[in-house]
Design a protein that fits this description.
The complex is a heterodimer of chains A (374) and B (525). With 374 residues, chain A is mostly helical. Chain A is 70% helix and 3% strand. In chain A, a hairpin with a 5-residue loop joins strand 3 and strand 4 (193-194). Chain A is globular, with a radius of gyration of 23 Å. Chain B has 3 domains: 2-233, 3-Layer(aba) Sandwich (Rossmann fold); 251-329 and 416-524, 3-Layer(aba) Sandwich (Rossmann fold), CATH 3.40.50.300; 343-414, no CATH class. In chain B, helix 16 links the parallel strand 19 (418-422) and strand 20. Classes of the chains: A mainly alpha (374), B alpha/beta (525). Chains A and B meet through helix 1, helix 8, helix 9 and helix 14 of A and strand 2, helix 11, helix 12, strand 18 and helix 14 of B.
Chain lengths: 374, 525
């Protein structure tokens, strides 16, 4: 049986490794085609990863990518495509910023209050799509895309000074949050500060794994993703599961902007990062919806983001990193499917082989046989 | 004249031999049956012949000419066609579109293709209408479309993989007529099956394969099913007959005037009333598509009755959701195990949890208990003889029979009070079939109530204590399994008889009396 375990690890790693290799090669080809040195940019970016200030930037950025990708992954695990993570986290962060600017509780209450505000806002926004899907059969893809657009407009509206907005120079903000809602960073000396909520990202990752793999609910969710028909026959209420998964996905999505909001910006302004929800889709894909895989993928993405500006100083376009991100997503989709099919076939063959060779479970390990059951 | 000759075919997979020194000679213009248990190596052999896998040793000759296939396209070019057990048709396309799909170059996609389809259909008596949507076709018609698809691509040798598994006796006869038509036109058919009676009735030659090698050939005229089965499994042929009755008078499942309608208002099930007692197997006979699926769905809770009641022992469960029904002791062996019974890409132990996620040993409170589930999976694997190298392999890597044994083991492990067994041995080899029958019989002795739905009339008659016939969503007739013959049952399944079926007495006055008020209504729908 150990053999099959090794097999699973091999299969799990083969997909991303192939995808990354292909993406590197294709990016190099793009560089060659534009008459550039195909190796130096990567060397430069690798070099960047060695600097501690860049490392802090990478970790900070990755924490937000990670949370967004978890939100996407929850949906993916049951074949729901929540493209609305972007709108959900922006609204979540916006509402948290508004509450943080107006409520002033002791930190021990203020921070949970802000987290819950973000969670409920995100869940509510995703829940709209969930309700539409289970009651009217509206595709969650379409609904969440629309909701993204609505969220953007809603934020523009709420930025108006007579709603929640505070104009600071030319910048729209939600006003400075009370300090009780600031989450202190982890001081790294000259390198800067790691957001305190990086811890939250880690906890969410652990929670994600535990819920999916160790709870009945997680089993039902995974079963629904693997086979809707088998899940219903097993007693899962498909509508309830869709709604729950959407709410959960939205709840996590709502948190994606908080590391920077509570750790650095302390207001939601025009400079607040956008698009993290979309990047989360690619990161969840690359990470195969596994909490560890997503962590690697988020770090990789953050590295490409934070190391690429250096390229501009050496005569390369930093957009090569964006091209690379795109190529990774493309090759991931292809290579995972190929590896999955190859793995299934390979296992079928091997099981056939083992059986024909007489390696039947119980044929030689009779010790464990009779204890179970009664 | 030989159409196909396989000589000395050996196929090794790392560490093992799947096919060993196989010899198979198919004469032109004959139906050649390939029989063997699941996992005996039939599919590997057919994959080799169809170009999906390359043999390590041995030769393939088509019409006397030695060939080497590297893909199914090569095999098709040589006139080899395959009709898969699971149909590969797009429901939302018409027959014409399905047939030309992928072969647009042959006769285009328009009038010429339509003409060609008509031509093939008429020539072989396939009765295929090119412009009907596939979703409107029944199983038998879909199969004919599959056959036509293969012929359209110019096949002269057809491989049919368990073609009768999904058909009722009358449809099987029609299929066999088609096959005879094909062979009279000089085509050759390789017919894979483990239904021995059918093999004997349609085949001209029989090759038996066991444990990866050809163990013998037989001439149908000189062989009995029993001899063939013994050749196939190397042991006695099991029979589904149950010895003494274990029926009690304690009702376990009581269904009263159950009615289920389709969105348009058409009744899918109407006035379904029956009681199953502890220790009783109630068999439902019927041509597929007459409400069996809906009945099962209504009992397991995938669809809810529009009217009528379902009671489990003394509780009314009509409004219960599926999970509650399963927790309260309804076991479910689904008709389509791939769609409703398994997570194919999940390991066996997760499949052991499926459907019983809230119950021990799979869960403690809201938490899963993977250790206990794995331990119990090992027990099931051994107790139910699931042939697998381990419990971490995916369900997809097991053969159909072993998948089914896992499902049966899982359902029985929760001590159900009532078991829904829909086609429990469909696509399962003789050995596994006997094991599954034994498990059902044993549980029945301990007071299990079973609803058995099957297309295998021998199985129905052999296992059931009571038989009912379902036709157009109604239970139209009942019969005593001790006296009824498969032929009589088959007739009733077409709706030609109703009331109580008596052996060797054509249903006369009482039957007619109950038919007449019903039939106009049937016509109306």
């Amino acid at each position: 049986m150990k053999k099959f375990d090794k097999e699973r690890v091999l299969l799990a790693v083969a997909g991303p490794v192939i995808a990354l290799a292909v993406a590197f090669v294709l990016s190099a080809i793009v560089l060659i085609a534009s008459g550039k040195n195909p190796v130096e940019p990567f060397a430069l970016m690798f070099e960047q990863a060695g600097f501690s200030d860049i490392q802090v930037l990478i970790i900070n950025q990755a924490s937000m990518y990670y949370i967004a990708a978890l939100a996407v992954a929850i949906g993916f695990r049951m074949n729901l495509f929540n493209i609305g993570v972007d709108g959900q986290y922006q609204l979540g962060a916006f509402m948290a910023a508004v509450v943080g600017a107006h409520a002033d509780l002791p930190a021990a209450l203020q921070i949970p209050l802000l987290l819950l505000t973000a969670v409920f806002t995100g869940a509510f926004w995703a829940g709209v799509a969930g309700v539409l899907k289970v009651t009217r059969g509206v595709s969650e893809v379409v609904a969440t895309i629309m909701l993204n657009a609505i969220a953007t407009s809603l934020i523009v509206y709420m930025w108006k000074p007579d709603v929640f907005g505070v104009k600071i120079g030319n910048n729209n903000t939600t006003g400075e949050m009370h300090e009780s809602g600031w989450v202190p960073g982890i001081d790294m000396g000259a390198a800067g500060e790691v957001y305190g909520l990086v811890i939250l990202a880690v906890l969410l990752g652990i929670g994600y794994w535990v819920v999916l793999n160790r709870t009945r609910f997680g089993f039902d969710l995974r079963a629904s993703g693997a086979s809707e028909s088998a899940a219903s026959a097993s007693g899962v209420d498909p509508k309830r599961m869709v709604l729950t998964a959407m709410l959960l996905s939205g709840a996590i999505a709502g948190l994606a902007g908080l590391p920077i909001l509570l750790g650095d910006s302390h207001t939601y302004n025009l400079n607040f990062p956008t698009g993290i929800g979309f990047l989360g889709i690619g990161i969840a894909l690359l990470g195969r919806n596994s909490p560890v895989g997503i962590a690697f993928a988020a770090l990789l993405w953050a590295w490409l983001d934070k190391a690429s500006p250096e390229l501009d100083f050496h005569g390369y376009d930093k957009e090569i990193a964006v091209i690379m991100q795109g190529l990774i997503v493309l090759s991931v989709v292809v290579s995972y499917e190929a590896v999955r099919e190859w793995g299934l076939r390979r296992q079928q063959r091997r099981v056939g082989a083992e059986l024909a060779a007489g390696h039947v479970l119980g044929a030689d390990n009779n010790t464990t046989k009779e204890v179970a059951g009664r | 004249m030989t159409a196909v000759e396989l000589a000395g075919i050996t196929k090794r997979f790392p560490g093992v031999v799947a096919n060993h020194d196989i010899h198979l000679t198919v004469r032109k213009g004959t139906v050649h049956a390939l029989v063997g248990e699941n996992g005996a190596g039939k599919s590997t052999l057919m994959k080799i012949l169809y170009g999906m896998q390359k043999p390590d040793e041995g030769t393939i000759a088509i019409h006397g000419e030695q060939v080497s296939f590297s893909s199914p396209a090569d095999a098709i070019a040589r006139g080899i066609g395959m009709v898969h057990q699971h149909f590969m048709l797009a429901d939302n396309l018409t027959v014409l579109e399905n047939v030309v799909l992928g072969s647009e170059k042959l006769y285009g996609i328009g009038a010429k293709a339509r003409r060609r389809i008509k031509e093939i259909s008429d020539r072989y008596g396939l009765d295929v209408r090119p412009d009907v949507l596939v979703e409107e076709l029944g199983v038998a018609a879909r199969q004919r479309v599959e056959i036509l698809k293969v012929l359209y691509r110019g096949a002269t040798t057809l491989i049919l993989d368990e073609p009768t598994a999904v058909l009722v006796p009358q449809e099987v006869d029609a299929l066999f007529d088609n096959l005879r038509e094909l062979k009279s036109e000089g085509l050759s058919v390789i017919f894979i099956s483990h239904k021995l009676g059918e093999v004997l009735s349609v085949a001209d030659d029989i090759t038996v394969i066991r444990r990866g090698t050809t163990v013998g050939t037989a001439v149908p005229a000189e062989t009995t099913p029993r001899q063939l089965a013994e050749l196939m499994v190397g042991s006695e042929l099991p029979t589904p007959e149950t010895a003494e009755s274990t029926v009690t008078d304690r009702p376990v499942l009581t269904v009263d005037k159950l009615r289920l309608t389709a969105p348009g208002g058409k009744a899918l099930l109407d006035d379904i009333t029956f009681t199953i007692h502890a220790g009783e197997v109630l068999g439902i006979a019927g041509v597929e598509g007459n409400g069996q699926t809906e009945l099962v769905d209504a009992l397991i809770g995938l669809r809810h009755a529009d009217s009528g009641t379902i009671r489990l022992v003394d509780e009314e469960i009509t409004a219960w959701p599926t999970r509650r029904r399963r927790e309260q002791g309804i076991g479910y062996i689904p008709e389509d195990r791939h769609r409703h019974g398994l997570l194919l890409e999940a390991p066996l132990w997760e499949n052991r949890i499926l459907g019983h996620v809230t119950e021990r040993p799979n869960a403690k409170g809201v938490w899963l208990d993977p250790k206990a589930a794995q331990e119990d999976t090992r027990r099931i694997v051994q107790a139910y003889d699931v042939r697998t190298p381990g419990i971490d392999v995916t369900a997809a890597s097991l053969s159909g029979g072993n998948q089914q044994k896992l499902i049966v083991g899982r359902e029985m492990s929760h001590k159900p009070r009532f078991l829904i067994a829909a086609h429990p041995t469909r696509g399962v080899d003789v050995g596994a079939q006997a094991a599954i029958w034994d498990h059902i019989r044993e549980a029945r002795r301990e007071g299990l109530a079973v609803l058995l739905i099957s297309a295998d009339l021998d199985e129905l008659i052999g296992l059931s204590d009571t038989l009912r016939v379902i036709y157009d969503g109604r239970l139209v007739a009942d019969a005593d399994p001790a006296t009824i013959t498969p032929e009589e049952l088959g007739t009733a399944m077409t709706g030609a008889a109703s009331g109580h079926l008596e052996h060797e007495e054509t249903p006369e006055t009482p039957a007619d009396a109950s038919t007449s008020p019903e039939s106009p209504e049937d016509e109306a729908r």
